[in-house]
Write a structure and sequence with these properties.
- It is a single chain.
- Helices cover about 40% and strands about 20% of the residues.
- By secondary structure, the protein is of the alpha/beta class.
- The strands form three sheets. The chain has a six-stranded mixed β-sheet with strand order 2-4-1-5-6-7, sandwiched between helices. A four-stranded antiparallel β-sheet has the order 11-10-12-13.
- Helix 4 runs antiparallel to helix 5 and helix 5 packs across helix 6.
- The longest helix is centred in the middle third of the chain and has 33 residues.
- The chain is flat, with a radius of gyration of 24 Å.
- The two termini are about 25 Å apart.
Length: about 400
């Protein structure tokens, strides 16, 4: 029996309210210099970006992608074993280190902040390890102070942006006396400005749906409206034993300053895992007491960007197709090819869990026999992990083609 169709889209809350409704969104890796940003970026994307021990080693942002780990994708690949396999990807940008005063141009200043404006979500890397061989820009280790520094700089950048937007509207009134500020503009700008002046992120503000629309329209490049995930870099010893004196303080600070997910990890540990990737015995020893935190980061980043994916599966290819959460079937078809959306006829769908529960061999025969394979129309909202074949009309001749 097909699932009931929802009468309205699920309510979107938090930072996702302000996000772009796209399927090509990016997470930016942000933090002070020498906290492990570029090293983490290298490990996530298996690259070799410079990660030297001095401030501003990264100047221009580096961009790359990393595959989203998913047991469902692995199951489908193992079942079909096609020549072409294409997972979902999370796009990442490695952004140079911020320092105190960046909003006024300190360090490499506003250039860095503009790079943060260009991404859709933020991995905020926080240093909670002490190593005399890795200098700290403020000389001492204090993650809470570092969190305050970054949040202050981001809020100050946004505050200047808001004031500029308000000034632009006031100039328009002077040029055109018939132009009036809407009550929604006034209320939304007032709320945003008060949050930022209190050093609080916009993403956790209490806004009506019309105010959210106004903020998106007038303040589309806010930084603190973006989702933020806090990645706390520990020593290998602390990560393995799951103890560090700063973790409770960092967690408390996050709760008091807009909330967000905190993920402890260790560059030292992750680097050793990477170095031993071709040594099964050494890997087994390393992972007895602790597992890599990278998969959790990637999955959480994907989730916070409000992204999901569906699968197409067959003898030639198994592929995950990224869509924005809430996408309808024709929009999913359009991710494969714009002609599929224009000529959409129907979607043949089976949920992943339903498919796995009845399937012993590749193909849809068993799912069909079990009544799990169904047809959906234009108003079907794609569910995460759906396996879909699209029927579309490529020429407008009434004859459907299949993908």
């Amino acid at each position: 029996m097909p699932p009931k169709k929802e009468s309205a889209e699920s309510e979107v809350t938090g930072a996702a309210r302000f996000g772009r409704v796209k399927n090509n969104l990016k997470m930016g890796v942000v933090g002070l210099p020498n906290v492990g940003k570029s090293s983490l970026f290298n490990l996530l994307t298996e690259q070799a970006v410079a990660a030297e021990n001095f401030p501003f080693c990264t100047i221009e942002p580096n961009e790359a992608r990393c595959a989203v780990p998913d047991e469902r994708y692995d199951f489908l690949c193992n079942l079909w074993d096609p020549p072409s396999k294409y997972p979902a990807y999370l796009w990442l940008t490695d952004i140079a280190g911020l320092v105190r005063g960046a909003a006024e141009g300190a360090g490499l200043g506003n250039a860095f902040l503009s790079h943060i404006q260009a991404v859709d979500g933020i991995f905020h890397v926080v240093r909670a390890f002490d190593n005399p061989e890795v200098c700290h820009v403020d000389d001492t280790i204090d993650p809470v102070r570092d969190l305050e520094t970054i949040q202050f700089e981001l809020c100050q950048k946004d505050l200047a942006y808001v004031k500029q937007a308000i000034e632009s509207e006031n100039k328009e009134i002077k040029r055109n006396p018939a132009f009036k500020l809407s009550p929604t503009f006034i209320s939304s700008m007032d709320k945003v400005q008060k949050l930022l002046e209190a050093n609080k992120p916009v993403r956790e503000g209490d806004f009506s749906s019309t105010e959210v629309e106004m903020i998106i329209k007038k303040l589309g490049h806010l930084i603190t409206s973006k989702p933020m995930i806090y990645l706390v870099n520990l020593t290998q010893k602390d990560y393995v034993r799951k103890k560090n004196k700063w973790l409770p303080k960092i967690h408390a600070w996050i709760k008091e300053h807009g909330g967000g997910v905190m993920i402890p990890f260790s560059i030292e540990f992750e680097q050793e895992l990477w170095d031993q990737r071709e040594n099964p015995a050494a890997l087994a020893d390393l992972t007895q007491e602790a597992k890599s935190a990278l998969p959790k980061m990637i999955v959480q980043g994907y989730k916070d960007l409000n992204l999901m994916y569906f699968f197409t599966a067959g003898d030639k290819e198994v592929r995950a197709w990224t869509v924005y959460n809430g996408a309808l079937a024709p929009q999913g078809a359009g991710v494969i090819h714009t002609d599929f959306e224009k000529g959409f006829i129907k979607a043949e769908v089976v949920g992943y869990e339903d498919f796995k529960a009845v399937t012993t061999k590749k193909g849809m025969a068993e799912a069909k026999e079990a009544g799990k394979y169904r047809q959906e129309g234009k108003m079907y909202r794609i569910a995460d992990g759906d396996i879909i074949h699209f029927m579309f009309n490529p020429k407008g001749d009434g004859k459907g083609a299949k993908k």
